[in-house]
Write a structure and sequence with these properties.
2 copies of one chain form a homodimer. By secondary structure, the first copy, chain A, is of the alpha/beta class. Chain A contains 12 helices and 12 strands. The N and C termini of chain A lie far apart (75 Å). The N terminus of chain A is likely disordered. Chain A binds a DNA duplex through helix 2 and helix 4. Chains A, B: It holds the Pfam family LacI.
Chain lengths: 338, 338
DNA sequence: CTGAAAGCGCTTACAG
DNA sequence: CTGAAAGCGCTTACAG
């Protein structure tokens, strides 16, 4: 009310002086730590409420050696742009972080490049980090482990210091494949991206599991990984068609989009001539005709869990070293029997 | 080399003591500010290089009342998920910020909700902010202006304190509309999203401009804004078809995707029965058959410029109050003449 | 060109 | 239950 300008921020010292108590007391009233009389506490709290005092987080940071920031690392690979995955996940992270008064420091870089991550770590700008994607040989995870800073990974990793939060891609892919096998498909092609992604390996394993469980020999010749290149993909799709596949599982919707495009170009009809299934159930394929059978995951939940576990680690609370979230199989026109 | 563990970080005081100089001198050697002998500076720089000293940014922050963070606000509206726009833009921001040793503090919230933004501002966690989307009555921009913190907007705004960086949606939409008019289309429908977005208004203006310039009466009855609801949109598309439109311009690719879906459902062929054009040229429609005529913008560039200008403002350098970036019109099958 | 000292705004043993 | 004082690791007038 009486405050004329916002130039000068009120500090803990101002409050202490105004109330005739020590800074220690004010600090304790605010933080809730340490013994303090209920009456004194009330008095302080009322005062700061009225004069809307807000603590200087930077000063707090310095005194406590904490930043109240968590780093979030997004890989800058081109295909990422296409997937709404990261955005949904980020929403979840932010939602949890905000309730704990933490903020998100965003970093984007290539997975082999640890420099951005090193920067925020050596600059002491974060208390922990979340890696949004894991790799088979994960430089970033290793670096964080070596430096001893708490971190969570979205996706599995063999770096044991990590707090892992993952969707069950293996079971998901296994169930999808099993269903397709039960639908009497014999030659099911699997098309995937970078083999260095842990998630690619998990899906492959699920695919193989399904065959094993059904006692059907795996169609090894129909497994195509590393299909990040559209030209290469087109070429391999032709190969797949020649080999007489009756179904193609794509490991993500962007990939599946490219597959569908190629099939159209080749005048191969879905699902009449060949069945198609995908991962993610994202908006990328939302408008496709026919509708596409897909595996669906809750990405926001994934972000929330990762953030919550990381916060627990930062605050030395109990944590789950590894959490696995569920999935849904959504059957649609693209795998309909003739 | 000799360092056995990373537990204890080396400080400016350690360096000073080891070298027999004052902390002031060390500080000056590092920052480059203030007079200092070339020889002394060398000595200090060599030492910190060798012992890989890294400054504590938090301490620096407190002393300078600077955070070396910029806040980036992403609106949490559902349709955002679909557009790769923000991700590309973020890449650009990060690229510039990193070179200046700044980091990105990410915030996500509803446009009417200023609480998240207030939090990072009152917590003094950022030196400036970038708003990734503007609104006709922009609460967040107004709040930042009132608080006197430097900010840039991606998109236009009437809040004069803002540093505006925008794509020329008005000219883009005008040129697209003009081309369609020249192609002898008479009844061009315009379908757009939220009228409260500044960008929606700009596109509308461009559309109207084109008619005016061509001395053709505007097809007012074919303008449909606020089409964020799929059910509503479907209904309006039927209306548009009944009214005999020969073309539909959609204000973004997600919207256009829904339009195309509805047209397919109604067995209306593109481009034979009706032409279609869109904005953004994003991956969302990449695989559509026919290919879709679209306006294309350089989103990464947009982020880079916004970030650069904001940094200049923060460091009290000269700034451009408003920057407008170009666009491309990409003509494809969806507007081909019969 | 260099340094002693105060200051940024908090927290936290330690003592009472 | 409360406080004086030291400390977090920098920067920056001020003086020499």
């Amino acid at each position: 009310m009486v405050q004329e300008n916002t130039v000068k921020n009120i500090t803990i010292a101002d409050v202490a002086e105004a109330l005739g108590v020590s800074k220690t007391t004010v600090s304790r009233a605010i933080s809730g730590k340490g013994r303090i009389g209920a009456e004194t506490r009330e008095k302080v709290l009322d005062y700061i409420e009225e004069h809307n005092y807000t603590p200087n987080v930077i000063a707090k940071s310095l005194a406590q050696s904490k930043t109240y920031n968590i780093g979030v690392m997004i890989p800058s690979e081109y295909d990422i742009i296409d997937l709404p995955f990261f955005q949904s996940c980020l929403f979840g992270i932010q939602e949890i972080a905000a309730t704990m008064d933490y903020d998100i420091l965003l970093t984007i870089s290539k997975p082999e490049d640890t420099s951005q991550l090193e920067r925020i770590v050596t600059n002491r700008k974060v208390d922990g980090v979340i890696l949004m994607r894991t790799f088979v040989d994960d430089k970033q995870a290793k670096m964080l482990a070596k430096r001893g800073i708490p971190f969570a990974t979205v996706g599995g990793t063999n770096v044991k210091e990590a707090i892992q939060v993952d969707q069950d891609h293996q079971s998901a892919c296994k169930e999808l494949t099993s269903i397709l096998l039960m639908k009497k498909m014999k030659r099911i092609a699997l098309v995937g991206g970078d083999e260095k992604h842990v998630v690619t390996q998990k899906r492959l394993k699920g695919y193989l599991d399904a065959f094993k469980e059904a006692h059907i020999p795996v169609t090894e010749d129909l497994i195509y990984l590393g299909m990040n290149n559209p030209v290469l993909l087109d070429q391999k799709i032709e190969e797949i068609l020649k080999k007489g596949a009756d179904c193609i599982i794509s490991m993500d919707d962007a990939l599946c989009g490219s597959v569908l495009k190629k099939l159209r170009a080749e005048h191969v009809k879905v699902p009449q001539d060949i069945k198609v299934a995908s991962f993610y159930n994202s908006s990328v394929l939302e408008n496709n005709v026919p509708s596409i059978t897909s595996l669906s995951f809750d990405e926001k939940e994934l972000g929330m869990v990762a953030c919550r576990e990381l916060m627990n680690a930062i605050e030395d609370k109990e944590i789950n070293r590894a959490t696995t979230l569920g999935y849904q199989v959504i059957l649609r026109e693209s795998t309909l029997q003739a």
